[in-house]
Amino acid sequence: MSELKGAAIFGQSGGPTAVINASAAGVFLEALKQENITAVYGAAHGIRGILEEKFYDMSKEDPYELELLKTTPSSALGSVRYKLKNAEEDETDYKRLLEVFKKYNIRYFFYNGGNDSMDTCNKVSKYMQKVGYECRVMGVPKTIDNDLWGTDHCPGYGSAARYIATSIMEIYHDARVYDQGQITVLEIMGRNAGWLTAAAALAKHAGYGPDLIYLPELPFDMEKFLDEVNDLYRKQKNVIVAVSEGIKDKDGKYISEYGTELAYKDSFGHVQLGGLASTLVNFLKAKTNAKIRGIEFSLLQRCAAHLGSKTDVNEAVLAGEMAVKYAVEGKTDYMVAFERAAGPEYKCNIKLVNLSEVANKEKKVPLEWIDENGTGLKQEFIDYALPLIQGESSPPMVNSLPRFARLKKVLATEPAMCR
Amino acid sequence: MSELKGAAIFGQSGGPTAVINASAAGVFLEALKQENITAVYGAAHGIRGILEEKFYDMSKEDPYELELLKTTPSSALGSVRYKLKNAEEDETDYKRLLEVFKKYNIRYFFYNGGNDSMDTCNKVSKYMQKVGYECRVMGVPKTIDNDLWGTDHCPGYGSAARYIATSIMEIYHDARVYDQGQITVLEIMGRNAGWLTAAAALAKHAGYGPDLIYLPELPFDMEKFLDEVNDLYRKQKNVIVAVSEGIKDKDGKYISEYGTELAYKDSFGHVQLGGLASTLVNFLKAKTNAKIRGIEFSLLQRCAAHLGSKTDVNEAVLAGEMAVKYAVEGKTDYMVAFERAAGPEYKCNIKLVNLSEVANKEKKVPLEWIDENGTGLKQEFIDYALPLIQGESSPPMVNSLPRFARLKKVLATEPAMCR
């Protein structure tokens, strides 16, 4: 275990979740305790904040507000979608990062995000190694999509899954209130992996869920879909369908793009798409006489901190804390990951995975967890997902509305050489 | 005070809310305690259930499940949108109702709903009076739209308002996470009255709300809208707009119908509308270079029992209870209503309003509560609405998912003459 004294910086990247700030709280609160960490910075808009030398001095924040980050959704520091070029092709960004790291004596780099962000993290790590700048680099996983490789699951998923399951259970009650019947199409996020849409099966498990669930792991067939919906509509009048935004046909074309042929083109010739739910609703309206309603969970599913999973929040905090502890102990070039312990009780241990093994890979829902008809999830999925949504987390309330963290965001200034 | 012995029937009508079942619980639990009430029925799908002689014997239900109705959203008995003809024009339905009332010795009729439902309730009341059938008729108010005349507010509104305010506060965090800016358009229910959309101002009051709020109480001008959005977009990059689904232009044309000209027509010539949010998103996309996102709260806003207002739930229960108590005491032909007591502390008393005064009227947001620019609400609205969302109500949880009421729904059989 080698000692390394210097500043730490933390960045948030990719789409927000209900708990990405919980990991931030874990990193900040732990880093502020560490003697070897001489300053704790939060990068504005992830890697871009470092490139632009725009980051905040987290020691200036009220500890109570840092605590509140645990139940404040989205990315409090701002997020970014920025893909670093390969260093072999273009070193510009890397040189700039190195310059900033040296200027502020940054020796700890923590990056919180999904696949793309782990790619960024990996590239930074490898570059710093190559140029011999000693810096401990740790990835902290997050994504509602739950598609990161090398970890049992990702912080952010449990809370989004709890929101989706709860909302569907409520919609289930509303969508069958009249006796003339209704087909309800629910569009859920997840471009390539169906984990979030699969969470609809938790609602079904609890007694009030969709009749049909379509994941992007399997090709989607419009005619089979129509038959399945029609069949149930005839039998039971009320039908609820959950679809992943990312479903594609057997040729790999997104079903949401089917709308293109029908859609209005603006004066620039741009197609104005209504989204997948709207495409399917229009299709069903043309093909059936049923009352049809499409519902998109949209941003709500990734920012609903009021319906957080306590398990998820705690694990997100832990992932941040452990990233700091491991880095201070001398570990680098890893992503913090979860490994489920064997046994009937749910328990996850922290492990470390090489960044290069995680970057740019995707973990999908195992095909053997999908039922024979391709429209539902088996018990294996329930056993996997149900523990992840356990425990109720919500922000403290003021006037019965959430009280979220308010950061001062004091810009960091160049440090004196010693603290 | 005259004694009247007989059965009671309760029906739910119109769009569901998070607390319509709370009023049902109030009616059922109170009616089951009353000695003069010989049987307690719940009508399947409102007035239609009575016409079709399909109603449930509520004494067969587990009391715990009736308690759970207080936190179970939507209409547990099923709802209906059925307009009774005027008795002068067509007596068929009324004769049938009378027949069923006599057969089951129904002497208490409780009807839970909004404007249209109070019209039904009023018509039934007047008919029974006309033919001299003694029956106590009481309306129980409910509507997320909050547009019932004669009452300070309506059960259902407070919970929907709390959901809308909370969700907007969360979306606010998500919708400004990247630094390239975004215009977010939120579509909120309310066809003619803007109460629900106005609830967005509660989010703003709490620090994280829409920049612009457009209610149907004022004519909507597309060019003014574009200017206002563009102006803010230039200044602050992130703009959140809340619009009522019912906004119309100065000629009374729904803005959502503007999409008609752009929309795809199916093979029958039917226009497939994407809704108001989609119309405005397409409009802004064509007119600006901004990233635009439309979000419809859809059914979620009227069934989110997990984010209920305890004040709302308690008042909904109370409205049901008091309807029964007043009816047993001899009152008839009224709707139960709320009257706010003067003073700094929120307190509402129950009062009775003549059904004929309530039927088919609408209460809108007072124009003097809307700010000069027509894009925000004044403090008067906050003072009015904030007390209504106070207190946290959510269903009991099993596996961290809601446990809703499960009714047996035992169909009533013709009663013996005496109990």
UniProtKB/TrEMBL annotation, chains A, B:
Site description Important for catalytic activity and substrate specificity, residues in chain: D116
Enzyme type, top EC level: transferase
Pfam families in the cross-refs: PFK
Residue numbers annotated as active site: D145
Binding site for substrate: T143, I144, D145, M189, G190, R191, E245
Recorded GO MF terms: 6-phosphofructokinase activity; diphosphate-fructose-6-phosphate 1-phosphotransferase activity; metal ion binding
GO biological process terms on file: fructose 6-phosphate metabolic process
Record localization: Cytoplasm
Keywords: Cytoplasm, Glycolysis, Kinase, Magnesium, Metal-binding, Transferase
Sites annotated Important for catalytic activity: K142
Activity modulation notes: Non-allosteric.
Top-rank lineage group of the source organism: Bacteria
NCBIfam families recorded: PRK14072.1 (NF010675)
Entry similarity comment: Belongs to the phosphofructokinase type A (PFKA) family. PPi-dependent PFK group II subfamily. Clade 'B2' sub-subfamily.
Protein's UniProt name: Pyrophosphate--fructose 6-phosphate 1-phosphotransferase
Organism whose genome encodes this protein: Capillibacterium thermochitinicola
Gene name of the encoded protein: pfp
